[in-house]
Every structure is written in structure tokens, then in C-alpha cells.
Amino acid sequence: GSNWEFIKTDVTGEKKNVGRDHTESSQGTECPLQRPHEGISTALQQFSKDKSIAAIVLTGSEKAFAAGADIKEMVGNTYSQCIQGNFLNDWVEVARTQKPIIAAVNGYALGGGCELAMMCDIIYAGDKAKFGQPEIALGTIPGAGGTQRLTRVVGKSKAMEMCLTGNMISAQEAEKLGLASKVVPADQLLAEAIKLAEKIGTHSSLIVQLCKESVNTAYETTLQEGLKFERRTFHATFSTADRKEGMTAFAEKRPANFTNE
Ligand code: CAA
User: Fold this and answer.
1) Tell me, what's the ipTM?
2) What is the pLDDT of residues 242-251, one digit of tens each?
3) Known catalytic membership, residue 69
4) Strands of the chain, DSSP E
5) Of 55, 157, 211, 216, which one has the fewest beta carbons inside 10 Å?
6) Which is catalytic among the residues 5, 93, 115, 175?
């Protein structure tokens, strides 16, 4: 189907509504939660089991996508607490989710907020969005991918500059650097992100999942290993009904009717 799901974060990512929100039909169920990463993880686990959901949109408010980890809450944390509590590990679910997840970033995406956006598959930015890794000014460093994912996306020089200065970049610069794939007027951002999710949702969810896995492999391994993974995955699509349907539909000049099998 062409369904999408929608998750909201907020400025500090604290005590905000996370959950299913069918804005188009205004029939969302909101789940106020104390711990946003738990809310997002739980929502993603539910979405991954739900066959009617093809893609997910993660967004925040007009002012902020997320301004990072709660600084006031972290002030008293100790090294041993960080180690023993595996601090920040809870967010891995976002990067691990099998369905495509689009970050719709309006306003600030700072620190953990920028990292959260980078855990998503595609970033769309509102024209007033700002991205940054300001941890250095707090006497710490990014802890959820800011020195790793950002470097792979924008290259060493720019990532180094952002992480060492804490300076923010604009939506336009983020697009130029390939961090965001599109910039749109802020008030059209969510609609555009949903349109993107719907387009992805017209394809076979099974093949979309394989394709996402293959693109992600480019980040996680060498070129030779990645090419091998891609080739084998491409071959594997020939064991699916949807590959046959897609090619048959093309030959018969009709829309494909995918069954995700
Ligand atoms: N943690 C806790 N509180 C935060 C916060 C954060 N990350 N970001 C903003 N707030 C709070 C502010 O303290 C303020 O609270 P009060 O109303 O109680 O004073 C409120 O949100 C609104 O913020 P401002 O008054 O500062 O609003 P502004 O429009 O002037 O600026 C901002 C907005 C640019 C986001 C600014 O608040 C800011 O720079 N925030 C900090 C961003 C940051 O350093 N993030 C990195 C956190 S560390 C991290 O994320 C580690 C990691 O790798 C996971």
C-alpha cells in the first residue's frame, strides 16, 4: 500500500508526543512518553510488524526537529553511569529499522537531533532548518554518530569544521553537502515528506527493504564487499513474485500490482 507513519519529536526530545499520527485523516493516537527514545523505538517496532505501513516520517516542531540530548539532565552524569547504562545506545533502533524512514527537519537539528536525522534514510529540510554538532561547546563530543555518519556524508573537512567549532549550517548548505536531499518551504515540508513516503509506498515493500539494506551496506563495508552484497541481493530479487510482476507489468504497459512476496 501507500501508507506512511508519522512520528513526532520535539525541541529537547523530552516528554513529547511520539506515536502514530495519521494527520491527513486527523485520526492519530498520541502517546505522551517520558523517554523519547523509548517512544520512538516502541513505535518503530510496532510499525515494522504492521504490513500496512510502507514508510515512516519522523518530524519535530516548526522550531526544532530536536535540539539534542537533554543537557540539564546530563549535567550530573558520571563516566561509570554512562558505561553501565550504555548511554545513547537506545537510539540504535532508528538506524536499524527495516522500513524506509524519512526525517522531515524544520528548525534546529542539533547534537543528538542532527544525529537522529542522520540515522534516518532520507533527510528533507525546511528552508529555515539548521544542522549542527555543538557538543564541543559543552565540553563533550557527539556520541550518536556525529563524528561518524556526518564525516561519511559531508567529508572530513566539513565534518571536522562542524564538530570542532560547533557552528551550525543552513538547510541550503546541508542540501549542497548532500546531508539533506531537498529543501522546501517550511510550511510544505511535512506534505513533501509524506509525498515522498507515498511514492516509496507505491513500490514493493519487500524490494524496498532489500534496496535500503543494499544502500546501507555502502556505509558499512568496503566497495568490493558492498558490490558483492548488491549483486547477490539483485540476484535474489529474481526469486520474488514482485520482480516478475514488475517486469511483466512493464512489458504489458500496465501498472504493477505488487504483493510484497
Ligand atoms: N537540553 C536541555 N534544554 C534545552 C536544550 C537541550 N539540548 N536545548 C534547548 N533547551 C532549553 C533551553 O534551556 C530553554 O529552556 P528554558 O526555557 O527553561 O530557559 C528552552 O529549551 C528554549 O531554548 P532557548 O531559550 O535557548 O531558545 P533559543 O531559540 O534561543 O535557542 C537553541 C534554541 C539554538 C536550540 C539553543 O537552545 C541551544 O543551543 N540548545 C542547545 C543545543 C545543544 O547543545 N545540543 C547538543 C546537546 S548534547 C548531545 O546531543 C549529545 C549527543 O551527541 C547525543
Assistant:
1) 0.96
2) 999 999 999 9
3) yes
4) 4-8, 55-59, 64-66, 101-105, 108-110, 122-126, 130-132, 169-170, 182-184
5) 157
6) 115
Does the active-site annotation cover 112?
yes
Q: Which of 258, 29, 206 lies closest to 100, judged by CA?
A: 206
- Report how far residue 31's alpha carbon sits from residue 58's, in angstroms, rounded to the nearest whole number: 15
Q: pLDDT for 114-158, tens place per residue?
A: 999 999 999 999 999 999 999 999 999 999 999 999 999 999 999
Query: Contact, 125 vs 146, CB < 8 A?
Result: no
Taking the centre of ligand 1 as the mean of its atom positions, its distance from the CA of residue 216, in whole angstroms, is 31
Q: What is the pTM of this model?
A: 0.90
Ligand 1 residue neighbourhood (C-beta within 6 Å):
11-12, 67-72, 88, 108, 110-112, 115, 134-135, 138, 142-144, 146
Least confident of 18-22, 62-66, 92-96, 226-230: 18-22
Tell me how far the alpha carbon of residue 226 lies from the centroid of ligand 1, in angstroms. 39
Residue tagged active-site, from 13, 112, 113, 146: 112
